[in-house]
Amino acid sequence: MSRRSTIEKKTGKSDPIYRNRLVNMMVNRILKHGKKSLAYRILYKAMKDIKQKTKKNPLSVLRQAIRRVTPNVTVKARRLGGSTYQVPIEIKSAQGKALAIRWLLGASRKRSGRSMAFKLSYELIDAARDSGDAIRKKEETHRMAEANRAFAHFR
């Protein structure tokens, strides 16, 4: 880390079709073994499925899903005097968004179904409607932080 000045945050590139950085962030998380074109194909197919199923703009459904899954607090393990405490900490919006994307993709990978695009589209629709595995993960994290609120002073 530089001692002289703060490093300015780099902004990611936007994707070619939807012209949105959020889509590019999703593609970079779907990416396996460097196959970016396959990741784009999966996401674009999922977006097409969302448009057919909901008759809404798929980009707004994606935004709404990520907004609903984004957590406000999380727990971090702190070791003090031989015992480990789960300390609740507030997280910044960028980290929260990254967690939301990770949870959405993890939940869609666990789903049973035909293809990744199919599973991703259903998970995004469920998250936009405030249900699904990713939403459950967020609520679980919030419950854990609430239960360990007594250790907040260990921050």
TrEMBL record:
GO CC annotation, single: chloroplast
Subcellular location: Plastid, Chloroplast
Keyword annotations from UniProtKB, A to Z: Chloroplast, Plastid, Ribonucleoprotein, Ribosomal protein, RNA-binding, rRNA-binding
Small ribosomal subunit protein uS7 domain: residues covered: 3-149
GO MF entries: rRNA binding; structural constituent of ribosome
Alphabetized InterPro entries for the sequence: Ribosomal_uS7, Ribosomal_uS7_bac/org-type, Ribosomal_uS7_CS, Ribosomal_uS7_dom, Ribosomal_uS7_dom_sf
Biological process according to GO: translation
SUPFAM superfamilies reported in the protein's UniProt record: Ribosomal protein S7
The keyword Transport appears for this protein: no
PANTHER family registered for this protein in UniProt: RIBOSOMAL PROTEIN S7
Family of the protein in this entry: Belongs to the universal ribosomal protein uS7 family.
Quaternary structure and interacting proteins, as annotated: Part of the 30S ribosomal subunit.
Protein's name according to its UniProt entry: Small ribosomal subunit protein uS7c
Gene label: rps7
